[in-house]
Amino acid sequence: MANYRRNQSSGSGNAVKVGLFAALITALIAVYNFFTNSAPVSDPSTNPITEEVSTPREEIDDDANYLPTSTTGDVVRHKYYTLSYSENDEQAEWVAYVLTRKRLQMEWQDRPDLFESDPLVRTGSATLSDYRGSGYDRGHLAPAADMAFNTTAITETFYLSNISPQVRDFNHGVWKELEELSRDWAIKFNKLYVVTGPILKDGGKGEIGANRVTVPTAYYKILLDLSETNPKAIAFIVPNEVSYDPLFKYTVSIDEVEKQTGINFYPRLMSRELERELESNPNHDLWPFSKKKFDLRVNKWNKE
User: Fold this and answer.
1) pLDDT tens column, 59-115
2) 52-87 in b/e burial notation, b at 16+ Cβ within 10 A?
3) Which residue range forms the structural domain that includes residue 260?
């Protein structure tokens, strides 16, 4: 009887253990189902990772190899262009982006004309009041027309980090001509890497506004075509003033722009041999200029 009772007690203990284990499994499953069914569903429209994945590859400029070096260390990446911000001058020292035929041939979106401070500049960008009553235009570095293919893209160009004080006859004259010609070249050559910025050395032409925005003495624009058959580049330095000279008179080497700004352009985009060749040669013969645009500027735009 003692042996029987011992065996019976052991069997009963095992049954209890199995029961407790089953109850534990049931409880875990119940907890899992509760949290799974009650968890909120992620909204793709507010999920930046989902948004990036669902955006067509050609709509995202996510290759940083085309970016210049930053002398300030304050690089701000917007969705369709990148800039290096100079807090001392309250504007970008450069903006860089890719300009393509495909984008330029898309339906243009309306200009918002709503200038606002850049929320991504950690030190705070210039404000609209800095420009009021200054006598200078709020000149775009990345032009709105270059980004008119997309509402987000064109809206980003109205951040004041992308704006610089420009003489009105410069903004509506020679600079306008260069911007229009750049779009013509992008359509002709299919894809251009663009870097634009102010010449800020020696304190510029003074300052405006409570935030002391530097007025540049000149502006530069560099255009690079890296097509396999005919890689070429062209650079300009244009004084911040009215001009009656043809645009090709303002062409310089990229090396000269680097000398005046301290910026290294396209350091990772191509081989060192090709970089040296393209940056040292100011040859503008491969870039067709427009006499029609020049005449329009001299006879109309400069007088408006």
Assistant:
1) 445 567 899 999 999 999 999 999 999 999 999 999 999 999 999 999 999 988 789
2) eeeeeeeeebeeeebbbbbeeebbbebbbbbbbbbe
3) 57-303
Amino acid identity for residue 111 in this structure: R
**CATH number for 83:** 3.40.570.10
Residue 99 tokens read as 């300009």
- The conformation of residue 116, written as its DSSP 8-state character, comes to B
CA pair distance 258, 267, nearest whole angstrom: 11
Q: Catalytic positions, please?
A: 140
Furthest-apart CA pair in the chain: how many Å?
Answer: 122
Both tokens assigned to 80: 């369709």
- The reported pTM is 0.80
DSSP structural state of residue 304: -
Classify residue 168: in a domain, yes or no.
yes
Beta bridge partners of 6: none
- Cα 42 to its chain centre, rounded Å, is 28
